[in-house]
Amino acid sequence: MLGFNWFASLQAQGTEVADMPKEWFKINGYLKIGENGTVTIMSPNPEIGQNVKTSMPMIVAEELDVDWKNVLVEQAPLNTDIFKRQLAGGSDSIKQSWGGLRMAGASARKMLMEAAARKWNVPVGEITTELGFLYHKNSGQKAPYGELASVAAQIPVPKEVELKELKDFKIIGTSKRNVDGQKIVTGQPLFGLDYKTDGMLIAMVVHPPAFGMKLKSFDATEAKTKPGIRDVFKIKTYNDDYKPQWCDTNSFTELVAVVGNSTWEVMSARNFLKVEWEPFTDYKIAMAGWGGDQLVTVPAGLESTSDHNAKMVAAAAKPGKIVRKDGNPEEAFKNAAKIIERSYTAPFLAHTPMEPMNFFADVTADNAVLVGPIQSPEYMEKTLAARLGLPLEKIDIQMTRMGGGFGRRLYGHFMVEAALISQKMKAPVKLIYSREDEITFGIYRPAYHALYRAALDANNNLIGFHVKMGGVPENALHANRFPAGAIDNYMAESWEIESNISVGAMRAPGSNFNAVVEQSFLDEVAEAMGKDPIQFRLDLLKRAKEKPVGEKNDYDAARYAGVLELVREKSGWNRNSAGKNRGVAAYFCHSSYVANVLDLTVENDTPVIQKVYAAVDCGIVVNPDAAINMTEGSIVDGIGQAMYGQLTFSKGKPDQDNFDSYRLIRHNEAPKEIEVHFVENEINPTGLGEPPYPPVMGALANALYKATGTRYYHQPFTKNRFE
Amino acid sequence: MAVFNLKINKKTYRVNVDPDTPMLWVLRDHLNLVGTKFGCGVAQCGACTIHLDGEAVRSCITFVSEVGNKEITTIEGLSENGDHPVQKAWLEVDVAQCGYCQTGQIMTATALLKKNPHPSDQEIEEAMSGNLCRCGTYTRIKKAIKTAAISK
């Protein structure tokens, strides 16, 4: 138990919030109803800024058939008995929970109807509901949900329920404001970094300054004399015989922990630590992977970006591993009248969520309480149980609102670090990373390389297509995505270069490189063929739809074409492009389709993004204004990463460590205007946290070409020309 | 360690801390005013923005010993009921995604509007460019500032 819960002590709510009831009746794991009709709906998934804390409860409320203004939302803790897939990743929260959330609301509604039927002694089939009221029209009886909540709570959860028809939706498809909005704008405690309990200590860790190094020894004599310092000691994140899961990616598993009374005291004392580091030799990790255990080699060495770049160029010149081959691409290239060949690169990126890594832990001999920002609580519970030697049910994980994550908070080594420090101190501890810790102890987006080739015949027809993708230490290839399926002779190859730099998922993994380079290359091919870039893509998609090449094409050509047609119409592409530096791109990832048209001008040798149009097909849109916000933010993020983002290394050490050297997009660099349109259909909703992020980078590259006459092959684009 | 009497949000607080402690940590750790956020510690992101005698400053590089008699306003003291026109505009436009940087954005925006009640787009961009938003809500922030400028 927590002595004093900082969050629970602050119950202040928004201005339009329902009255608090005297008593709650738990209807099912997702919701409880008060005697006054107020409803509390649990939001199961981690909230990272993707708005699930509003949109997931909206889906429950829809099927429950209540007035949204009578709904309170609570963040659920990790509870795998009740909730499925409590994960923020893959843009899958809404997609995978759509059915379950609807069932949760619908089954509670059915229980209330049963309760009313019993009370009024009428058949349940004659009961109807509307906005939190139960009706028996024949007898003219009416009761609010609150009046029957206590009875409904006793009724067994029904096995089968009817879901609403889409045409009857009242909440889904209408814009609802962020349920945490009032707390956000008034600065109330919401985030992990804001969490505190009585007697809580503050901890920071010191990690090796370079990848390829490990802890040799440390001397804490002086640091320990500094005011407010309680202890300094080494922690080892994993036991030697531990088989890490995917979410345990971590290069620095031996750290020095500094623990004290307050953040500034710990930050200051940390500078007085004398630590010696040494290079490590090659080692292997047995990792528990999705496809079974695998032995991963971590090579020794202090790597530099210049070495990476040279190795990537060399690897790209050699044959790769053939991942897909349709027709006879070798023959097509041999017979080509013209071959277009281009190489593209992109650097490592750090995630840099605005809230640095942190976690609260209170570990005793019997149990562990962890509170903070984590995208993968289900998985981290297992890691923690193994490391602490506690059964799963003794690990209590509570999720705070996350100040961003972008994938970084899928890798929860910081939870283990906090837990080990708390265990050693026998006290509640909050572990805090500085920004420098966050950037230099990253699980980065890999550095990528792509070689594209297109074969044209004498009549400028596209007869062959070849992509070879690689990276350090992972490649970004999605071999079965467009334009695979649209070209008779197609080949996709991949290669990888070993590295000891830790990498992982960053917003739209792989796609965040693919979309830029593929969409740039297609633009160049269209130009060489003398075709309009949108029509060129639509022609390929028509082919993919009518007579697809191969069988494993993992996109829907009609929906893909749909967003291109919509963006063409909304941007006035055919009538309004003259004199504009305008680029187009479209991409499919994480089950959704997005196309962009981007207009820019160049002023004082600096590109100014005037307007971005987005056409999005993510099926049914649950919360339209929030979906627009997510799309706008992804566009700004995409432009920022493509223009400015880069993390480079010198002898294993990141060259950038804070926002003075690691560049993010700023207000004055954002587009002046963004216009978002959704394809209207009745397809079950798919993700939106990632899909609107990749394509805009391609549209930007193509618009830059229009403006400058130069193609942009290497990210960040500013390095290419503008700085 | 030294004792400082600080005027924060129209109240006086007494703290006993190292004179080099940044106001950011005095507010967050010692006074439980956690609306002022830690983002970078080097005045590059603006998440920790507070007002010092009405001027927007970065609390991560403002030592407690520098404050003296100046009046500090944090997000918690911007309005009594969370209904400052800028806060209301932020809700109306529904600016936030993750929300972490928004208190700093609001503090910078209110300082701007106090000096310049009807800023142009360019003036907004210039004034706000020290505040990072990793989620990319810049277009909504601009819209909210314009909304607040009209409603004031």
Order of strands across the biggest sheet of chain A?
Answer: 10-11-8-20-17-18-19
Give the integer mean of the pLDDT values of chain B.
97
List the chains of the largest interface with their residue counts.
A-B, 66 and 62 residues
Rg of chain B, nearest Å: 15 Å
> Biggest sheet of chain A, open or closed, and with what strands and sense?
7 strands, mixed
Estimate the strand proportion of chain A: 25-35%
Task: Indicate the overall shape of chain B.
Answer: globular
Produce a short descriptive summary.
The complex is a heterodimer of chains A (723) and B (152). Chain A has 723 residues and is an alpha+beta fold. In chain A, 28% of the residues lie in helices and 26% in strands.
Detailed description of the structure:
The complex is a heterodimer of chains A (723) and B (152). Chain A has 723 residues and is an alpha+beta fold. Chain A has 3 domains: 24-181, 2-Layer Sandwich (Aldehyde Oxidoreductase, domain 4); 197-283 and 353-440, Aldehyde oxidase/xanthine dehydrogenase, molybdopterin binding domain (Aldehyde Oxidoreductase, domain 4); 310-349 and 444-722, Aldehyde oxidase/xanthine dehydrogenase, molybdopterin binding domain (Aldehyde Oxidoreductase, domain 4), CATH 3.30.365. Helix content of chain A is 28%, strand content 26%. Chain A is built from 17 helices and 29 strands. In chain A, the strands form 8 sheets. A 7-stranded mixed β-sheet of chain A has the order 10-11-8-20-17-18-19, sandwiched between helices. The longest helix of chain A is centred in the N-terminal third of the chain and has 28 residues, at 93-120. Chain A is globular. The two termini of chain A are 55 Å apart. Chain B has 2 domains: 2-77, Beta-grasp domain (Ubiquitin-like (UB roll), Roll); 85-151, DNA polymerase, domain 1 (Orthogonal Bundle). Chain B has a 5-stranded mixed β-sheet, sandwiched between helices. In chain B, a hairpin with a 2-residue loop joins strand 3 and strand 4.
